Amino acid sequence: xxxxxxxxxxxxxxxxxxxxxxxxxxxxxxxxxxxxxxxxxxxxxxxxxxxxxxxxxxxxxxxxxxxxxxxxxxxxxxxxxxxxxxxxxxxxxxxxxxxxxxxxxxxxxxxxxxxxxxxxxxxxxxxxxxxxxxxxxxxxxxxxxxxx
Length: 148
What we know:
By secondary structure, the chain is of the alpha+beta class. It folds into two domains: 1-30; 34-145, Immunoglobulin-like, CATH 2.60.40.2550. It has one helix and nine strands, in the order H-E-E-E-E-E-E-E-E-E. The protein has one helix spanning 2-28; strands spanning 44-47, 51-52, 57-66, 73-81, 87-94, 101-109, 116-128, 131-136, 140-145. Strands 2, 4, 5, 7, 8 and 9 form a six-stranded mixed sheet that branches. A hairpin with a 2-residue loop joins strand 7 and strand 8. Residues 14-33 have low confidence and may be disordered.
C-alpha cells in the first residue's frame, strides 16, 4: 500500500509541475508572434534578397514599409526564422524613431548560422486611445548560402 501511495504522489507532483511550466511559459513567450495575430498584408510589407553568409558577424539588409489605415502609433516587430523553424533574430521598429518605409538590418554570425532557407516574419501593432490592434504581414522566404 505504501508503494502505491508514493507512486500516486509522484504522478500528481509531475502533473502539477507540467501545469506550472505551461502557465509560466504562456506568460513569458512573446504574444506578438506572426502566427498568433490576424493577417493584414495591406498594412505593409517586408522584403529581403538571397545572400551569402559573410565572414564573422555582419549586418544583412531588409526593406520594410508600414501603411496602417488607422490613426495611432505603429510599431513593427520583425522575426527571422531559421532553417530549423527557430527564431534566430528579432528586431523592433517604431513610429517616430523610424520612417514608414526604409531599410533596416538583421545581424548574423557565420560561425553560428547555418546556410539554408530563412523566413522573415513581421507583425504591425497600432495603438490608438489605449487600444492595441495587431496584424501580421506576408512572410518572405530567402536563401543564405555558403561562400564559394
